[in-house]
Design brief:
The protein is mainly beta. The protein has 3 domains: 67 residues; 82 residues, Immunoglobulin-like; 120 residues, Immunoglobulin-like (Sandwich). It is 6% helix and 51% strand. It has 1 helix and 17 strands. A hairpin with a 7-residue loop joins strand 12 and strand 13. The longest helix has 17 residues. The relative contact order is 0.11.
């Protein structure tokens, strides 16, 4: 049956069971079977009560009971701050207190991670860390108010971490060498050092006291484990022998650090360290005085 239509509505805060604050009718004032009425200028994130009416004669309307809906919350504007090679902060404000949730993933990736804080607040500040350098991330920001209503940012942020161009800082370089028990021809040498960021471990070495600028012939490394505490064990060095050492580390971004070449003398079972030093000096002077 064709009829006229109208909607009576009111905010929850001012709603009375038998009274609606406003009523709007169809603009064309034509009787019809299908009715569409658009409510405008409503407050965001607000509960409204409403009742739908249909009538041929205004004095005898047919109407629904009380119904209700909640308008969507205004979308918030988020921004990324303090971008570093492995982290950034996401900050935003909300008109009412909400929780804080940030979903993030590498651009184009299906899988991602999420950080959340259930503390209800107007100002939101989330640190997103343990990221890859020079990588673009898609970031979605949202939260829930005390009534469980969903409040989200206007758009997904695209945030790129900075590139890592700083090499690791090497410190606490140490070489400990001892004879292998039961062996007179081999020592065990432990080379250790620390870095200020996770990185690889490389030890280059060569027998003799050659030029510091020369490339060392031997190398032992661990390029699969990134660590800040480095240990390389050498088990093939001869006792009572001069060796040149150079250590190095590379971080995840490929930035490399090396120390200058250092010289050590491995221990000898029947000689003290002083004896070894004098013997090496003696061999050196003999070579100088009697060159081949």
């Amino acid at each position: 049956m064709k009829s006229f239509g109208s909607v009576a509505y009111s905010e929850d805060a001012s709603f009375a069971t038998s009274t609606y604050a406003s009523e709007i009718s169809e603009s064309d004032s034509i009787k019809k079977a299908d009715h569409t009425i658009k409510l405008t200028n409503l407050k965001p994130n607000t509960k409204y009560h409403y009742s739908v009416k249909s009538y041929v004669f205004q004095q005898a309307p047919a109407k629904t009971g009380d119904l209700a809906f909640i308008t969507k919350a205004s979308k918030v504007q988020a921004q990324a701050l303090d971008r570093k090679n492995d982290s950034f902060r996401v900050v935003w404000n909300t008109d009412e207190e909400t929780s804080s949730i940030v979903e993030y993933k590498k651009q184009g990736s299906a899988a991602g991670d999420k950080k959340s804080d259930t503390t209800m607040t107007l100002y939101h500040d989330m640190l997103i860390d343990n990221l890859l350098p020079g990588t673009a991330y898609e970031v979605k920001v949202y939260g829930y108010n005390k009534d469980g209503n969903f409040i989200e940012a206007k758009e997904i942020l695209l945030v790129t971490t900075t590139r890592d161009t700083t090499p690791p800082v090497i410190a606490s370089f140490k070489v400990d060498s001892a004879l292998v028990p039961g062996r007179k021809d081999r020592t065990q040498t432990v080379v250790s050092w620390k870095t200020d960021e996770p990185s690889t471990s490389i030890v280059k070495y060569e027998e003799g006291s050659g030029s510091p600028e020369a490339t060392l012939a031997n190398k032992q490394e661990d390029t699969t484990t990134l660590t800040t505490n480095h240990t390389i064990i050498l088990t093939t060095l001869k006792p009572g022998t001069i060796y040149r050492f150079q250590i190095g580390s590379s971080d995840q971004a490929g930035n490399a650090s090396t120390l200058p070449v250092r010289t050590i003398i491995t221990p000898r079972q029947t000689e003290s360290v002083v004896d070894v030093i004098f013997k090496n000096f003696e061999d050196t002077f003999r070579f100088v005085n009697n060159p081949r």
